[in-house]
Sequence to fold (191 residues):
Amino acid sequence: MRRFIDVVAESGVDTYLQNINSQVPWYPSRRTPIILTGYRRGNREFFRKHFRAGLPKERLDPALDEQVVFLNRYLDLIVEDHDYEGLELDWLRCPFCIDPPATQVSIDTMTHWIAEIREMTNARAKATGKPYLLGLRLPCRLGMLKAIGLDIPAIVRSGLVDFVSFSNFFQTSWAEPLDDLRAELSDQVAI
Fold:
């Protein structure tokens, strides 16, 4: 991994975003089981099923302890307790938040939620004395995003995000209209 990062840096890339995926949501949900469903702070047994049967105790116990530390921190919310340099909210693959068509009230609710996250990233930046960027990973279709509650131009105009990372997936074409997106979002945000 270090060699890969070195090659990327030597190629002139100055920002690397790590996309961590899972099959279970890592965000609060009233409908869907999440990574924390059933977990209680310090519960080593919660993780035992993740390791193969018969793993020697001297290997299993430290692994269980590491998992406990990890999810305990997750209970305390990532932005406040980890040494990251920013946060990217990923809406690319399955952008579900509000059933379309979103009402203005729903759009305002989503914008307010992103504003609350912005407040946390600003607080983290102030506490560390270093920028703590907030961005969005998005499909290229701004109209589709607004239909599910994400008014990207309004979010950008409000200064709630530092960057937007457009890509394609099932719901967009492989040709990304970056010039059109830049025209719509102006130079207020990094793309």
About this structure: The beta strands are 86-90, 133-139, 163-167. The chain has a mean pLDDT of 85. Helices lie at 2-10, 57-75, 78-81, 104-128, 142-147, 152-157, 178-185. Residues 104-128 form the longest helix (25 residues).
